[in-house]
Write a structure and sequence with these properties.
The protein is an all-alpha fold. Helix content is 72%, strand content 0%. The chain is built from 11 helices and no strands. The longest helix is centred in the middle third of the chain and has 24 residues, at 60-83.
Length: 202
Amino acid sequence: MVSEGNRALRRVPEGATAQRIEAAVLRLFSQHEFHRVKLIEVAREARVSLQTIYKYYGDKETLVYVCLDRWLSKLTGRMIDHLRGIATYKDRLRKVYWVVMDFFESNPDVAQLIITSTYIDAWRRHDSFRQDELMGLLLKVLREGRDRGVLNEEVDETFLLDFMLGVIQRVVLMWVLRGREEPLTEQADIQFEMLWRAISKS
């Protein structure tokens, strides 16, 4: 049986309509808590009918999570592009870390939306939560490191991913909460070296 989330992911609008809806979602849900935003406000901001929102997304949670899925898909695409031609494993992993930081530095409202308007328990029940393409790419890079004998072999790549994402999430969260006072990428190399020492094989 196909869930509402799956159907919405397959039939979201394209072109200018999608861009207006995504821009409205990003502005409203990054500036206000989830429960304070009404769908009619999104429709007005996006210059579409409320019926259009219901037709393509069904409910407010699906609207936010489908849009978030599309933004994170852009992160995946950028990561794939940046990893091409990098042979040294450490440099590949360094690039992964930098691309994530650069993405949120370039899209701070996406980070703010995740903080302000996503509830982890609700998001995990939505199909977009798994982020199969992005998580698959990250796991592939980490598995490569274990296969080469470069990364810690006492834990599997799933734990290495959890550890790495935990560092990334905390750094991005505090960057947002501290008012984005400096570029997120400014200390990316230093942070990565600290992360590398924690997960690389000693």
